[in-house]
TrEMBL record:
Encoding gene (name): hisG
Keywords in alphabetical order: Amino-acid biosynthesis, ATP-binding, Cytoplasm, Glycosyltransferase, Histidine biosynthesis, Magnesium, Metal-binding, Nucleotide-binding, Transferase
Major subcellular location class: cytoplasm
Gene source species: Algoriphagus antarcticus
Keyword Transmembrane in annotation: no
Cell compartment(s), UniProt: Cytoplasm
Protein name: ATP phosphoribosyltransferase
Amino acid sequence: MEKIIRIAVQKSGRLSDDSLSLIKECGIKFYNGTGKLKSTSTNFPIEFLFLRDDDIPGYVADGVADLGIVGLNEVVEKDKNVTTMKALGFSKCRLSLAIAKGQEYNGVEFFEGKNIATSYPKILGDYLKSQNINADIHEISGSVEIAPSIGLAEGICDIVSSGSTLMMNGLKEVEEIFKSEAVLIAHNNLPDWKKEIAEKLLFRINAVQKGKSSKYVLLNAPNHSIEKITSLIPGMRSPTILPLAQEGWSSVHSVLNEDQFWENIEELRAAGAEGILVVPIEKMIL
Ligand SMILES: Nc1ncnc2c1ncn2[C@@H]1O[C@H](COP(=O)(O)OP(=O)(O)OP(=O)(O)O)[C@@H](O)[C@H]1O
Ligand SMILES: O=P(O)(O)OC[C@H]1O[C@H](OP(=O)(O)OP(=O)(O)O)[C@H](O)[C@@H]1O
Ligand SMILES: [Mg+2]
């Protein structure tokens, strides 16, 4: 039997596009036709299962899938035994408590004895316990933001990103209780050969992520300022310095974190750098 691992990804929703883009950026090819729930890569030993996100932690814990890409919120809520291998940096959101906009709020004691609607009873329950608050948790599976306006609950605990869903439903965010982003999870006891394939995937993900946060910078500078410029953009080991056709000038090439570039831009220009080009990096292996 061919040795391949299985990864569970969300079929359609907030995680799907970014999960599949990341896999593609890792150079892994597969066919993802509409309605197809299983697909095998043509150039990497991996099979994809397209599932509801809520089911992913359970499938990975049971070993139906070896790996999964899912929100940390679902991993913690489902409380399954899985290993979180890597935070993936997309689908960033928070779980927050919210109440009707017009209500006075002086702290988390507001929720004592109140009814709170949520799809995250475990995370909310743990939070309330940590705050010594006794409240009734009313579990609903979606459209949580509607609960206060229909008299179902006095507060809600749900996912917030821009805050526009809360605003549109006349609610205000009062406590952030959990921060989430997409994570790569793995079954706890993978055999060594599966671990090896998972590590290969992780290696590629790291290279893609590192590339995304870094930029290749090229600039021209008078030779007398090369030392100063090198100290501002030191690069991976050290910058590449090539002579320009024009005497007394060099081209300096370096790799750096984009934030670091913007922090140093004024100093670079003051040191005489000009013709500065900033180029994206597809993959970066240290
Ligand atoms: N507005 C948002 N901004 C950023 N991330 C979000 C947002 N809403 C949800 N997420 C993240 O994406 C995950 C999936 O959200 P989605 O709304 O697609 O779930 P769902 O409706 O339960 O999907 P499914 O049909 O697969 O069960 C959430 O668990 C959360 O981690
Ligand atoms: O703060 P915001 O940017 O408004 O995002 C928050 C909303 O996003 C998610 O729902 P989604 O839009 O994915 O729809 P769903 O409820 O059908 O999952 C989540 O359940 C919130 O309702
Ligand atoms: Mg879901």
